[in-house]
Amino acid sequence: AVPGAIEQMLDNLLENALDATPRGEVTVALARSADAVAVTVRDDGPGLSDTDKRDATQRFWRGSAATPGTGLGLAIVDALALASGATLALADAPGGGLAVTVTFRAAAPGAAPPTAP
Question: Would you say 91 and 99 are in contact if contact means Cβ atoms under 8 Å apart?
Fold first, then answer.
């Protein structure tokens, strides 16, 4: 990941998840395979429709006027993921809520991290 990207992504994802969930139940999970590392932040909030999942990474998008924030969080996460060679996916969480996953390609031994654009 580009320097500072992971911290910024997690900050935005956790803030969004905590804002969205009524009970404050948020789960962070890591999964590793031979060629990738995935970070998933899940909440137990109301989730998003398929249309909202598609639109949520657009700058200034918010679920409604009552939704707190500027509408930049997921757009920033998406841009940082792209700059880092990662992917961002929004999906329904098991049992309700939203699961947001950032998947990074595993670095080759001795490889330098990407640089900020």
Answer: yes
Tokens of 89: 């996916």
Residue 67 neighbours by CB under 8 Å, 6+ apart: 19
Strands (E) located in the chain: 26-32, 36-43, 87-92, 98-105
Output the CA–CA distances (angstroms, integers) from residue 103 to 22, 47, 53, in the order listed: 27, 20, 17
| pLDDT surpassing 80 at residue 115 | no
Longest dimension (CA), the chain: 47
Q: Taking residues 28-55, what's their average pLDDT?
A: 92
pLDDT of residue 66: 64
